[in-house]
Design brief:
- By secondary structure, the chain is mostly helical.
- The protein has one domain.
- It is built from 11 helices and no strands.
- The protein is globular.
- Mean pLDDT is 84; it is low at 262-266.
Length: 266
């Protein structure tokens, strides 16, 4: 793998974003809106309840982490869709660019764009709603790592689906975070029906949010769950990369990639 080719994919995304305010604003506007909305909701819940339960770190922290995963995923898929919308995908692979170099470029692009959203969310949550996000220190690293890896896997999977079914199938990309009910973003996994709990055990984010709730409640938590989350996320990334490569090779073998257009793929 040549890093220069990967860097070229990242540089192309940088030029696209730099040249368009409509691409810059979504990097932080929607993240800011989510934090402000949920920040006021948590403040209201704290005001009307007499319990010692702290809604800010529980709900607002969960929103921040879930938004981070979603934006990592969208960072990959949006970079891919830019090539689809501009009908540039075939041009890219007319060069010596390999699948691994292309996917690595999407991942690094997503890393940069999702970092912008994360910084904005952390600043708003800390400055306006008192979420002591930095107080957790290095404990945040495995949390963010698992969510980042899971977002990458979902992004590559969504891109592969669009590559196989064509641009009209891009709506499949947006509901992929529908897994949120299964991972217990806002409630313990134990509240789910038994069959949903089995699914939750196979989803890396569920371990992140369970551990986060334990830390907020000052309950001792084992790092075993996060280790399992990292292993599962790594497996899903490999599986998503295999699926994307399989779909790409199918598209080349059948001539589908040559007929790729914004209108239809037959």
């Amino acid at each position: 793998m040549y890093l220069r080719r990967t860097a070229a994919i990242v540089l192309r995304q940088f030029y696209l974003i730099r040249g368009s305010s409509s691409r810059v604003l979504p990097l932080f506007v929607w993240a800011g809106i989510d934090i402000v909305l949920w920040g006021f909701i948590t403040r209201y819940l704290n005001a009307i309840t007499d319990s010692r339960f702290r809604f800010v770190p529980s709900l607002l922290g969960a929103v921040l982490l879930w938004d981070f995963l979603t934006r990592v995923m969208h960072g990959v898929t949006m970079a891919f869709l830019e090539d689809v919308w501009s009908r540039n995908f075939l041009n890219l692979f007319a060069t010596p660019l390999s699948i691994s170099e292309y996917l690595s470029g999407l991942v690094f692009s997503s890393m940069a764009t999702s970092s912008v959203g994360l910084i904005v969310m952390v600043l708003l949550a800390t400055g306006f709603f008192g979420l002591s996000f930095f107080g957790y220190g290095l404990m945040l690293v495995p949390f963010l790592l698992v969510l980042f890896m899971c977002g990458i896997a979902l992004g590559i999977l969504g891109s592969a689906v669009v590559l196989r079914l064509g641009p009209p199938a891009e709506w499949f990309v947006w509901p992929i975070p529908i897994i949120s009910p299964f991972v217990g973003v806002f409630y313990p996994v134990a509240t789910l029906p038994r069959w949903m709990q089995y699914l939750a055990q196979a989803l890396p984010p569920s371990y992140v949010f369970e551990c986060m709730r334990g830390i907020v409640r000052n309950v001792s938590t084992s790092g075993h769950g996060l280790v399992v989350g990292v292993i599962l996320a790594s497996f899903y990334i490999l599986l998503a990369c295999w699926f994307f490569t399989h779909v790409y090779r199918y598209a080349v073998r059948t001539g589908l990639i040559a007929r790729y257009s914004a209108e239809t793929v037959s």
